[in-house]
Amino acid sequence: MHIFADGISKVTLSSGNLRIKLTQQGTDNEQIQAGTLIIPASQASSFLNGLAGSLRELDEKLKAQKQEQEQQ
Fold this sequence. Notes:
Elements: E1 7-14, E2 17-25, E3 31-40, H1 41-71
Antiparallel strand pairs: 1-2, 2-3
């Protein structure tokens, strides 16, 4: 399943799970609920660290590609 989200409306901890309510920007800048990402609280830190690390790697690759394009 794929969910497009461009925002977060709320983060809560309930029954040992981190719940992140995801939103989409609708017409007239209204926020539409897109779904809820549920992560076991015991895994939240490693999950978020993994996501942050992946985003850093992606950012480095994009910067390297941009530099290559500028040098051509």
